[in-house]
Records
---
Amino acid sequence: MDTIVSVSNLEKSYHSKKAVAGISFSIQKGEIIGLLGPNGAGKSTTINILATVLSPDHGEVQILGYDLIREAKSIKKEIGIVPQDIAIFEEITAEQNVRFFAGLYGFKRNKLNELVQEALELVGLYDKKDDKPRTFSGGMKRRLNIACAIAHQPKLIIMDEPTVGIDPQSRNHILNSIKTLRQNGATIIYSTHYMEEVESLSDRIMIMNEGRIIAEDTKENLIQNIGNGITYTFKINNFNQINKNEIFQIHGVTNVQLTGKDLFITSEKNKDTLHSIVSLLLDNGCSFEKMTSKEASLETAFLDLTGRSLRD
Amino acid sequence: MRFLRIVKFDFGNIFKNSTLLISNTVIPLILIGLMGFVTQSFFGNGIMSSYDYYGVSMVILSALLIIMTATNAFMEGRVKQANIRMIYAPIPKFEIYLSKIISTYILGTLAFSSILIIGQYFFYINYGGTNLPYILLIVNMLVLFGSCFGTMMCCLLGDEEKASSISQLPVLLFSAFGGIFFSVYGLGKMVAAISCLSPVRWIMECAFRIIYDNDFALLLPVTFSLLGASIVCIVICQLTFKPEEFTC
């Protein structure tokens, strides 16, 4: 399999804060990589470095065999970035938007016509090509945002939260478009806050936290290795009265996290820990409004690894 | 070819912005009419009417204020957001800011040349008669400088609002001391001496000497000073423009 992205010991700091702290990974041709991490985890910095917009402080990056520093222009020709913010002109038509941005890659008129049509068809906006984006819904703008990024048929597509705040119909359309892009041979890095998107799209998942990759595997392996068990969530009113270590001492409890008023306790499957947990909480004078339980999932694995929920 | 396409596109964006279009065409004419009308009595029946004076000074002020158009064309919220894609595209960074400078300059040149021609031939403002091309040259150089200066401020500050508000201060100060709003000679020797420090004063002086005295002594110094300052601004753009700031 061809290696499309190869990153080794990548570091980037802003002032004294390390945004990316020596990460290494590789991505193979045709893969969809889900990039997960709470806010400030270093995802956007990593994406901006791969997009050749930011220079790394340290480390080596090769994209499609080109060196990130010395051959940035060659890399730019081969990658497409879907930025988090909608980057389109509202006062010109959808077609003019795609045509202008694809035109920056130096295509001749006939080829450009073909590419513009393909991109608009892929995102389901061809019948709206003559409309101005200011008349579009949020979901349609997001789809146009993608069309502008992929019209030049990049080999590597980096998507930074492409489905923020859109309706389910547009989301499904976008997710299907991404699957089609992969079928057409593109490699995709997909950063999102929506766990279910990563679950349905990604071949592999990278979880970043505090500038590091703390887990990288398939969804199934991540859940099996890290999040195998049941997570109980208690909405606690007065946690101060109990020590986290006391909960850990319950046989079968593997993780305890407190986020705001939410107490997450992960327990091994098939261990009857719930009774002991509830008793301990009540015996220590803790009151809780609500308790839910969830079997191991990517979300619980993420929580287990980062101590934060994805939208924190 | 690609660069021309970007310039054309940027020009289209400015041209479609009615606020920018009005501020560079209608507003200067209103200012000339308003100031000329209000100060009519101060000018009497001399060789220069109030409309002649403000016809020159308000065009100079408006041409300088093209800085605001340049900052808007470069970093106005929605434009800046869409420009992110240019940062991701395989184009050199100079094409990004230079296209804004050139498109702003084209708009300014068309707008202010039209104002001067319309002013001279339809409203009978004295722009020098056959010397009009020299006044056009000065104003166009001023537009070039304003376009470069506004873009440079965006590169330095990375933000349209900051660039606009900070740029306005020296423009208004230099304009006030340069005699744009009223002649500074009536305010005493001290103020007249201070006004010599204002580049705007020399541009005004140059224009009036050409119009009324057929004196071209200041034409080359003014033209080359503005051209030189524009080149300095472009060099500063190249040194300070950080494409990554678009993505923040």
---
Amino acid sequence: MDNVIRRRTPAARLARALLLTVLILAALFYLMPLVVMLLTSVKPLEEIRAGSLLALPMNPTFSPWVKAWGEACTGMRCDGVSVYFFNSIAIVIPAVLISTTVGALNGYALTKWRFKGSELVFALMLFGCFIPFQVVLLPMAQTLGWLGLASSRAGLVLVHVIFGIAFTTLFFRNFYVAIPNELVSAAKLDGAGFFRIFWRILLPVSAPIIVVSVIWQFTQIWNDFLFGVAFSAHDTQPVTVALNNLVNTSTGVREYNVDMAAAMIAALPTLVVYVLAGKYFVRGLTAGSVKG
Amino acid sequence: MSTVSSPTRPARVARGRPAGARLQDWLPRLVLSPSIAISLFFVYGFMIWTFVLSLTNSRMLPSYDFVGFAQYARLMTNERWWVAATNLGIFGGLFVVICLGLGLLLAILLDQRIRQEGALRTLYLYPMALSFIVTGVVWKWLLNPGLGIQAMVRGWGFEDFTFNWLTDPDMAIYTLVIAAVWQASGFVMALFLAGLRGIDDSIIKAAQLDGASLPRIYWRVVIPCLRPVVFSAVMILSHIAIKSFDLVVALTGGGPGYATDLPATFMYTHAFTRAQIGLGSASAILMLGGVLAILIPYLYSELRSRKHG
Amino acid sequence: MSALTPVRAFRKTLLGLAVAGTLGAAQAHAGEVEVLHWWTSGGEARAANVLKQLMEDEGHQWEDFAVAGGGGETAMTVLKSRAMSGNPPSAAQIKGPEIQEWGELGLLGSLDDVAQSEGWDDMLPDVVADVMKHDGNYVAVPVNVHRVNWLWANPKILEEAGVELPTTLDEMFAAGEAIREAGYIPLAHGGQPWQDATVFESVLLASAGTDFYRRAMVDLDPDALGGEEMIQALETFKRTRELMDDDMSGRDWNIATSMVISDKAAMQLMGDWAKGEFTAAGLTPGEDYLCAPAPGTQDAFTFNIDSLAMFQVSDDSEREAQKTLARLVLEPEFQEAFNLAKGSIPARPDLDMSEFDTCAQQSLEAFQQTAEEGGLVPSMAHGMAVRSDVQGAMFDVITNFFNSPDMDAEQAAQRMVNAAQAAL
């Protein structure tokens, strides 16, 4: 695009300086909570009590991180958030894989194999995005009981898949709708089947939207608290629940540095995913939902 | 929506393999059927179940003692419900509008060939990765007058600086807007940026040749092109606004008093903490109804106009 | 439902693993109890650990299922979800009238045989025993008795401000002014509905007396709720706001307590669980901090009893473990250790109190005295007086009145009448 402020006049230069200032100010706004968390997590307790939130640590220490990972007490157990961290991983990976696969197939079937009522089916599933999760807690609990999946990791995976496919279907449907039908039609004439066309034609070009779907699902499921707390037992709680217990647990004086370190640990996987794959995320959205 | 469906269906030729062809015909529906079944049962089934419960006087656990629309009548006289509903209007409206405005502004600014674009974009986007379970404590600090921004600015020498919205019942709802905008506006920015990159340069060049100024080009040419992006963004943002729950619990706990209650927290509190599942279900149904009443016309008009455009 | 197949298979593997796991660890008669509780604050967790240890000494397994947040609100949500799925934990921290509600649903198991062999009827005070029974059968076991109407104070600040520990509301307001002038926050408080209600019920008791309290908060008598005495109590309650700081919104109670500990605030109106925080900070009662009945409530005792209710289980060894748990809870060793750490008094009054500090001894004395003289009342703020829906509606009125500058006391009293009725 050439519609940029680039001419080297003083006015243009001023405009450009202004532009950068605005952008950097905005960046500071977005950064502030994270910076406070990070600074607090490496400060000794006395410094937290004495200094301002944004003061740099005078004696940085990593012991809060060590404590949050392996020693901090959540309730009666004092083994930090590590156990729960792995619970989360065990829930998130299958849930993301299954919901993305189902979403991809749904999106493919809805766009390349349209049938009477396929738009209605899509609309039907789309509204699934809007149901408040609080509403489904009790019926879901009962259903999980019937299925014999109550309080298990498998149950949590199932719940996340159920309420994730509305979104993954939306993503893939919007992506595939923009892919020309000609290739698919030609392949059909050649006698290629449903799965073969998907495998050979659609899947190879789906990388951007798979990234979007995986990031979205990963973030949603990893950050979930409500389902995690309601459908878990003592040994299947995800990391968000442990974090909540830790933050609400206090040994006389609250150890804010440990709280913050635990919060950072709980946030790390999603942060890493966003930072590493953020570029592809934006790219995928360009190709996908935008062109709806 | 079904009325506008079935565009040109590719002609399918069955080449002497009728059985296989028929299977191929049914396969898409077969693939979709588990999802449809799940959707019908877990979304619509549960909605109906909730509606049924809203007609009962269920307390701690569901019971089927029907009382007609009594729960709705009680809800109408419940002052806290009206506070929650009004709050959703204020919060949702401001949240969506500010996110769209800020997101668009940042996207346009970032689209001016900024060298650090990648880094800045990541900074704007990362809040979306964090839940309020994680950032709630920090937000509480930042907004707390004695600890956070107010104390900090006063520490810099501006003794009269006041920022105590969190403790003011009339202003506390706006602190929710701030934190929610912080979380989602970067995401909207990314959507808009993606949209800007997708606009055909020749349209803009033509406008430039006509001698239009840059702001005018954006206002008249570029922004109208972004209409589909606005649509996606509004859908995602309203979904976030309606489901806002962690945010309230982590930041204000609904307080001061119940000044920052939202329908989602109202429903949760009544159904779970106060053993009034009947009343909670009624509020959930009204909430869902309200959402659909706003979304369906929007969805319909957008989808229609796009078919014609 | 092809999508479910892998999940099912996964579940089978899980189940297999779990079975293998329990078999490996099995001992004679050893059962496990999963205990859902919200004893997560420092003193509480340490106290509950004693019980866990005792269970393990008897060869049973304690599966700790702690869910923190909102005075047990989150834990109750989890409990309902687990009950709906037909898979409740074997024991859960449930209290007050809520025990009756779970009992009515037929989900609780009877503890009568333990109660009989251990002689609970003779051991427990009637007030306590009544709360634990549903339909005449014991379904829960009391862990402790909390007194809610306490005042905690920092003697250094009182001395610096030149005031005595207040014994009436007027004295409290007067002391507050002096403390404010000395540069401290008079009253530490956290702006959460239950904390507002905790202060309110102490003020109500002081200004209107125990009989009125019972009429209004237990019997929900509309004449009392909307009456002149209630209006006055509400006005006094709102005045306590002047004694608090501006940043209290949403603050947790233990943070408020730590303000008293760290010489920022002079006093706090809070139940005796606050003592656990003082103890954890290594302070001695009578020297480093003071305890006294909330001003004007010397003759009253608002009780809050923690209890563990046992859910019906089918497995015999689990049943055995539940009974052991119920027995151990009232064992002197646990009662002493737990209540020492938590700040409360034992649920059975026949224990030797010499290990306890002066605050606890004072509390037990007041408990026995008020039980005879009629000053023993259930705490509304802590779910001992009314069912959760009425309590919630009351909380709404109290907290909204306390926080809204333009609602007057008459309006609030009228809303209380409505709250009590609307929830019926």
---
Amino acid sequence: MMGQGRLAAWGIGLAALVALPFLYRDPYHLHILVLILIWSFAYTSWSMMGRFGLVSLGHGGFMGIGAYVTALLWNHLGWSPWIGIPVSMVAAGALALIVGYPCFRFRITGHYFVLVTLALSGIVLQVITATRDYTGGSLGYTPNRTSGNKLLALQFDDKTTWYLIALGVWLFGIVVWHWVDRSMARYALEAISEDEDAAAAAGVDVTAEKLKITLLSALMTALAGAIYCQYQMFITPDTVSGIAVSLQMVFAAIVGGLFVSLGPTFGAVITILLAETLRIGFGTKAVGWDNLVYGVLLVLFIIFLPKGILGSVLDRLKPQRKVPRAHEQEAVQVARPGT
Amino acid sequence: MQAFLDVFDIYLLEAVINGILLGGVLALLALGLNLIFGVIDVTWICYAELVMIGMYAMYFLVQVYGVSYFVAAPLTIVLVALLGAALHYLVIAPLLTAPPINQLLATGGVLFVLQSFATVAFGIDFRNLGIRLPVLAFGDMNFSYARLLSFLAALVGMVAVYLFMTRTFTGTAIRAISQDRQIMALMGVDTRRIYLITSALGGALAGLAACLLVLQYDVHPFVGLSFGPITFLICVLGGLGNFIGGFIAAFVFAEIISLGGLFSDLEWGYVLAFAFFIVMMFIRPAGLLARRR
């Protein structure tokens, strides 16, 4: 179990986060915080499987499904997002199983797995663009504003409500992360990522374990997409789907640190603040400069700080207590259950 | 009814031939990517962005500086080849011992850099060479000279690479390295030099593809996204690092896109190609030509 001190730190931190919007009401800063929380949840979802060496570039696809299915059901069939979000999650989960099963069954790993999942986000992007009669294509899509019950339509005007929703979803992601971290599945998946044959020989059902974590990750990513859609009330294929979004997830998780529960969150804080600062710093005249600096920083990060910022810092603080595992060649696991 | 069938067949034939012509350029792209993967064991996610830079180089040389197309093309090929070598030297070389996924992500970062560099330097306008090649009418079927030219040039490029790989010492060394990375260093081959040459060669192929694609398509900073993913799919379908598999897969994909586009929008051609790809993953997970284990 968690130590008393750790638990207390979490409690105080959470209380501060919940209290924040009631004490501080600047809408712009709250908006940035909501975005950070939603994306943190998405990045955490990605890292659920990313930390076990299952690097997916297909999560842009799951996120796109979450956002678009929810919005389409609302606009065309009038289904409340309370039904639409579960439906979209089921759709994303089904897709994850369809693509995941052959990959895992036929032992598609490494480069192959990355490229197959890359194709997945490509296909979702193309389908959204191709069905432009329904989805608005690359011009984007807006869920209809409700005139009735706001709770039923999951549409709120004030940032505080959204902040609390995003906080709840983010917390849910962290809890799931810890749940997986403490489960048997984690040991099975770590064994798999080190050596599939050895794991299988030791009685681990490789395909089933991989499928389970992929399904969980896809479901959560779709939820992130749906929440993002409900908050922004405007989605385009490029902002919720496709390769750029997938890469963005991977980068943020790597920058923050894959193997610690708050790593992806930390990555989201850094990348979003960086992007915002660059965007404001360079202003509207210099389109593209922000991304240029962003990209250069990412490359430097991967070359010089492969453990991620939080991972590296925690690494410094704690003396190394165990031999690094093969799948974490660079990154030593630092957040361990029971400490 | 008979008239309808006649028309249909003509269109079908036209689509089939256009697919073959499209396949040439795709095969060229796949060859470059396969070369890098087979020899250095790295996937350049930013490969299509190198092509994009090459297309801009062609645009500026031809449209702005008024250089003739046939002078501009070699210059562009050399430029992109240098870019490929620089990519290897600056990004891949420091990461050679890192986990493969880090190498892949670093090139993903380069993708962002190149895209935003193009946005900063050239703006987001669509640009083209302003060269409109005539359309070749053959019976009732129409083919653009640009496609025909690209197809032939792509074939010539591929034959040149084949000859280089089989007839020269360096080419033999490249093929040997792709078979066994460790032993070749012991045999006195300078691995770093070979890697650099391979990267330059991969870049040169991207440059050639750029010279050909710029004849058919407008260039803009995000043009790479429109054929990048399809190139990766082709490489995976053919088996990563498998040159012949990639060549065949390129034509299979081109036909699907072309025929799919005949019955519906071009995007649905792409969607069909993706769907086909997923199905093939079930049937032949290790690539078209792979033997079942």
---
Amino acid sequence: MIGNLPFVVCMILVGLGLWTLLSRRNLIKLAIGITLIESGVNLFLVALGYVERGVAPIYTYAPPRAKMVLPTPQALTLTSIVIGLATTALMLAFAVVIYRHRGTLDARKIRELRG
Amino acid sequence: MTFGVHAPILAIAVPLLGAFALPVFTKLHRSLRDIWAAAVGAFTCAMVITVAVQVFTSGVQVYTLGAASPTASVVQGGFPIRIVLAVDGMSAFMGLISALVGLASLVYSFGFLKEEQGKTLAMTLFFLLWAGMLGMEYTGDMFNFFVFLEVTSIAACSLVGYRTWESAPVEAAFKTMAMYTVGGLLVLLSIGILYGEYGALNIAYLSSKVVGSQLDKIALGLLLGGLLMKAGAVPAHMWAPDAYGEAPAQAAIVLVANTQASLYGLWRVLFTLFVGVLSAPAVGWLVASLGALTILVAVLAAVTQRDLGRLIAYGAVSQIGYMLLGVGVGLAALSSRQDWGLVAMKGGIFHMLNDAATVGLLMLAAGVVRRATGTKDLASLGGLGHDLKWTSGFFLLGVLALAGIPPLNGFASKFLIYESSFRLSPILAAIAVLGSILLLAVFARAFQGAFLGPRLREARPASPAMLAAMGILAAVILAMGLAPGFFVEHLVGPAAEALWRGRDLYLAAVLGG
């Protein structure tokens, strides 16, 4: 009996992430904002597959005639988490290299590419 | 022909395997790596051409993963349970573009990249990007589309920023990565919404079930936003000039093909997934206006550029505008089935091929300039035509083709767009013509500044591999300019038809009638 609450929470997370992207200038914080959006989307996918009082969708372990949650969104979420790991790692690596070159993580001070 | 059945998956799997095996071969010997790369590239191109021939002669090709026969994609009751690759005329056409650009990039990188500057790494990433692009174009499944989208994002950003000993490429890569990731997540969110509503990820099945609810409209908006972010259309174009300008030349042309793969995703979403429920004139107007805005903003920004790479990059962004304009006009005319709508679609789709060839040629020529002089700053370049005769010729050809000077290919596609967008609104056509004129002025100035005038310094001539790569693209440009009718009839026409009225065929092929 939780209704649409999980979806609302997911969208709040996505909104927070977008707000972080727009309002912060530190490269690490930008990466955190993107991770927030990603977590919101992942939670959204998992919440989609939830069935009231469902059990884990492992056919051989489930009690007979039990309701199972949907397995597909969980598979999607796993894939999405792995992709998220790669993108986050890559962004942080770029941030480290930028810091070594410039000695700052402030996006406003990194102006070489403006215009 | 049993082997040909497997061509779609081989076109994706072979470059993927090729990418990961490449560093292993380098450990053994460098010449082994070059042979391997050439073999993988040739095989992938052969597979893409096989797919295209099959699609253009016998209709939509469906390949089912994990099942013995392609007809096993659907269980009783029409519910698709398997992952499918579905290749129709548009997908096959996009595959050909990717293959052409990939081939040119591969040939160019043999002569362009230096061993001590991560040649193996760059080639590995290139093959990954190639596999991701072909996957985006061939897949028949929304989630796989997202996965391949992210594969291209990661590979593309690594290609932009792998030269970590300089600061600018890495900054461009960070910016691009942020835009790509947010765009990709918007796409994933909308895929989640669609899955929650219809319980499926198969594009054809979704298309047959979609009802046009409020949630569908949100999903469409998210897909539109996410894919346009990746395609680099205004107002989400900020990453494009940085990425194109800073990426090494052989990577920049693949980035252009990658933005086109995102545009292909947009066409697929609009014309196959949502066409039954969206209000086509409104969305068509939106896409066409975004296209006109992209042309205007990118061309005006190009006027002020002092760096050859960024100037070409803004030229590339403006070309995205022409594609959006053409296909948007087509979508606006879709519900009334006006003839000029199909003409506009042909123009927009033909322009994708033209853009890949012309912008690719310009970027490769700019790469030669950078390698010859160590700079891309127009103020300090000049008189390169004395030493780089072939490159100057190729650059001039690219400039004329990009600006749409008859009889070159850019004129053929742009004329189709002018003619048809005028029927929708003269203002759109006026912006398109104005954009072309300004573009010619900008690029004529760049050509004059870099290649003409007295010789300022000794320039290192291009290597044969680089000339060969530019020669491939130049030959395609000339062929398309001299015989545009042939290309429109045999390649562009079927691709445009596949979007225009091919949805039912696509659905029937995947869902089994």
